[in-house]
Amino acid sequence: MNICKAIRGISTLALLSAFAIAAGLGGCKKDSGSGDTASTGAATSQSSGGGDSGKVLKLAFVTNNASEFWKIAAAGVRRYENEAKTQVDIKMPPNGTTEEQNQILENLVSQGYDGIAISAIAPKDQVGVINNAASKTKVLTFDSDAPASNRLLYIGTNNFEAGKVLGQQIIKLLPSGGKMAVFVGTLSADNAAQRLAGIQDAINGHNIEIVDKREDNTDRAKARSNVEDIINAHPDLNLVCGLWSYNGPAIAAAIDALGKKGKVLAAVFDEEDGTLKGIESDTIQVTVVQKPFQFGYLSSKWMHDLATDPEKTIAAIPKDKKIDTGVEVIKKDNVADFEKRLAEMKK
User: What is the mean pLDDT of residues 247-251?
Assistant: First the structure.
C-alpha cells in the first residue's frame, strides 16, 4: 500500500502519531531478529534464576595439565551441561606450567567470564593472579586448592586424608618396613604437598624411610626416567610412589622395563589406563582414586549457581569453604569392577 495515500487527509497530529507507531513497530522487528548472543564464540547458555534472564553465561573449568585424568572430569562437566542446558569451556595448559595457567586465567577475566574453576598448579605463587580474578568474577578451586587466595570454595579431595589412606596401604605392603621413593610433577602444588604429608603421617613409626623425592614438571619422559634412575641408584629400594595421575603409568613402564615387577612394589594415585593395567598385571599393587567426575560436575554446578543466584549460593557454601569428594582404594581384587563403573561414568 502507498503510505502517502493511506494517510492523505489525516490531521497533522494524527500523521505524527501514525509515524510514531510505524517507527515503534519497525524497532520491535529489528530487535527480535538480532543474533548478537550467538556471535561471542564463548559459552552460549542463558542464565536462569536471578539477574538478567537473557544474559549469556561464560563459565570455564581450568585444569592443571592435559593428562588423561582430566577426561573423566570433562565427562562430569558434560553431564552437568546436558542437565542444566548450559556450557562450560574446558581449558588445559598444554605443558602444565604456571605461566600457561596464569595466562589462561587472565584471558578469561579479560573476556568477562562469569565463573572460573581452577586447579592451581602453584597455589602460593598464584595468590595474586587468583585474587585479581576473584575481584572481578566468581572463582572456585578444585583438585588443587589455593587456600590463601580469595577463592569462594574448594571442591575435591582432602589430599592430606587421601595421603593417609595411601600411607596405610604402603604399611600393608611393607609390614616390616623398608625404603621408598616418591615421584610427582611438582611438590609446590597443594595437592602434591598434602598427599605427601598424609603419607608421611601414616608411615611414621613403621620403619619406612623415604630415600628420595623427584619432580618431573609434567614431562612424561622425565616422569619415567626419574623412576628408572632412582631404582638403579637404590638397589635396596622396596617401593615407589606416584602422587599425580600420570606417575602411575610412568612407574609401571619403568618397573616393567627394568624387570623389577614384584621386586619393587608400587603405590600410586588416580585411575589412568596405564595404572589400571599395571594393577591387572601386578606391576602396581594399589592406587587411591579420587572422584574427578565429581570435580567436573560439582564445579560446573556451583559456578552456574554462583553466576545465576549468587546471594543464595554464597549462603549455601560450607563454613570451611570445602567440599570433600572422597577417595576409593583400588587393588587387584576390585579393579575390574571399578573399570566397568568408570566406563559408565564416561558415557
Answer: 98
